[in-house]
Fold this sequence. Notes:
Shape: globular
Number of strands: 5
Strand content: 5-15%
Radius of gyration: 21 Å
Number of domains: 2
Largest sheet: 3 strands, antiparallel
Structural class: mainly alpha
Oligomer: single chain
Mean pLDDT: 83
Low-confidence stretches: 210-218, 380-385
Strand order of the largest sheet: 2-4-3
Helix content: 40-55%
Number of helices: 14
Distance between the termini: 51 Å
Amino acid sequence: xxxxxxxxxxxxxxxxxxxGGACRHTCCEGLEVNMTEAEYFxxxxxxxxxxxxxxxxxxxxxxxxxxxxxxxxxxxxFLGTCHLLDAQGLCMLQRECGVDGLTAVCRHYPRSPQxxxxxxxxxxxxxxxxxxxxxxxxxxxxxxxxxEQELSFDLPGDRPxxxxxxxxxxxxxxxxxTVLANPSEPVQTRLWKLQDRIRRCPQWTAQGDVSPVPCRxxxxxxxxxxxxxxxxxxxxxxxxxxxxxxxxxxxxLDAHPGLDDLSREVDARLQRRxxxxxxxxxxxSLVLANDFFYRHIPFAAERCSMGQQAVAxxxxxxxxxxxxxxxxxxxxxxxxxxxxxxxxxDERSRILIDGYASFFRMVExxxxxxxxxxxxxxxxxxxxx
Length: 385
């Protein structure tokens, strides 16, 4: 379905331009690209060079339970990269057939066009260019905001809900974004407010939901640290790019098993980060708001309720905070962040963006929410040990 409309987009969106071969975290690395039934048969019968045909035949597989919108996928090769990349890291399909030859996912990603409630589009935090634009916004003191831009997309199978329900859902998301993007409050306070607001929605269904950890009102960690520790260990084992970061998170939690002690240590490390780069708190707020907007939370997936999405988002944000603190280090031992005085500002920014890009690749391109929710269901309200 061709959509030509005014899309709500973040203010950085008009400035987004793919970095192409200069990108350190190419979209084609490790991504399984789903395609429609029509796209599959178009590629199956595509007239192309013998080399491209070999790679298409090697890389495309029909899904186990295909439907017309998710019929097949392009698998990464044994090195984790797309079968269709040439020796220079460029797409052979695009080179031979142009942009129109690509699947919709490859044409749009890291953009996220959707029209379920209203036309919206952002770019993914997994994209380093997105993170660079958000960091530049923070350095200019710009807060989260949206504008309207005329855009055109082919959106197979996407149909707008429309009507008063769509208006109510959009209003709720805007309200939640306002809470989440407020850098004057601690992140954990914003996560508590986000979950509380969703709990008070008529759409909240308690049965089967994962509840926030029942702590005192002034508690700073809305999600179980024990569950997050176990999840960090699992992530480090499943995703090699994240292993050094998740190992550092585990060391941080092991060294500070008490919640109050952990909170003080994390706050101290993040304060050092802010001293090195004053724009960091605003950058973090922009990153969280962008992920929330990009993934259309709390209406991102039918298989997860609003409450489950809110809890999963809180767990994701807390794991990101822990990872950031762990990257900075305690000033005495191993330091993933190169936070010493000898490191320049550009180098610190690059290391931060590399870590965040790797983290959000896991969040956006895997069953992160379902895996985190499963961990939280087993985690209870225990402490970091």
